[in-house]
Amino acid sequence: xxxxxxxxxGQSPDSRREVIISATESGRALVDEVTARRRHAISxxxxxxxxxxxxxxxxxxxxxxxxxxxxxxxDLLILGL
Length: 81
Known about the structure:
Layout: E1 7-11, E2 19-23, H1 25-47, H2 51-67, H3 73-79
Antiparallel strand pairs: 1-2
């Protein structure tokens, strides 16, 4: 990823044993592009479903997230994530 120019390494100001990895502008652009493509693909799939089936998908994903102990969306928004 470093060689590809997507991330860069830096030294931690707190510990010489730690390495800080951060996304480069190119890396952030890549993530944004992949995210946009995935959202478009998901939107295309959902548009082929009935509203009832779409709600079933939402319910299933909520159950899955709860089983995985994922934080609620409202909690993430409060945390600013």
